[in-house]
Fold this protein.
Amino acid sequence: MPDLSRPAAELITSMEPWDQWAGAQAISLWAELADAATTPNPFFEHWYLLPALEAFDADRAARILAIRTGGRLIGLMPIVMQRSYQRWPLRHLASWQHANAFLGTPLVRAGCETLFWQGLLDWADKAAPDDGALFLHLPAMPLEQPLTQCLMDLCFENGRPAGLVMREQRALLHSPLSPEAYLERALRGKKRKELRRQHARLAEQGALAFERREDAQGIDAWIETFLALEAAGWKGRSASAMASAPETASLFRQALIQAAALGKLERLSLTLDGRPVAMLANFITPPGSFSYKTAFDETLARFSPGVLLQLENLALLRRDDVTWCDSCAAPDHPMIDSIWTERRPIGRLSVGIGGKIRRAIFKTTLALELQRNPTGIGA
């Protein structure tokens, strides 16, 4: 097997319409890369990204950037040309994102981090003059991961201007403790007692049961029940539920069906007399996992069924193949932040591309942005 990490290896960078990656051979290469990635990101795996592109990229503006060396695929990400940055008319390249993608990390083969970033930046330097792009923007990057640090180190070593323009933290589950010990550490005794009381009171309303599944049996019915449960609550009233638009509903259905078939979906249900009162979908991408979507019956809010289901979700700590779970939640989330005590730093990075003049302009723009707000304006 060739040593893919050697700097002398030839890099081949391609930019292709994303529908060219929908064939069986391309998907096989894509899936193998995802399983070998240094940082897992289910939102850029084929079973999630292709349905998302079908739903939200009707004009086919996004492309799949792929980098190969030694005859093997070492990195892949969706990329798009943006005509503006916030309210400024600044053309730039960016990884393609949407509201239901909670991480923007490229899929990069472990050991090939420097090669990938070098290939991406070399390609962007050449593309910048023709496209008119001033910089490369990378949203939703995990700041604690070596892949992100590798990019910043490479920029520093090469004198390339780059900056962190936004930083936030969201809840993370990551601990060697058992679920019971973790809960005892996370919540005060009074709060744990209150949750036990709510569980008992909910059980008085009917037959209370919990189910955890990792297979594809009954997945279609589970999906439709989840969509209805979520739409019946505040997300439905605010038109932010997955069922509120055909595009998001289609993404949810396709992604969960494919994830279940691949063994990458864990679904939890809390039922009362057989009727789900809280539901949760986790994406399992060892060594990590992602708490994708949750919903609960708001008519039973006094019993906190969503929180009770999260207590069952602490069983993730017992898995041998998973060491952490990203909540995918907004910063300072009132529920999950009180249970999961670790935090994952997530940020947006901007990197100068092109020749000296273009990079100098970007450097000035970046300085103005950071001077206005030290944490950036890219939120």
About this structure: DSSP finds twelve helices and 13 strands in the chain. Residues 1-8 have pLDDT under 50 and may be disordered. The two ends are 43 Å apart (CA to CA). The longest strand covers residues 162-173.
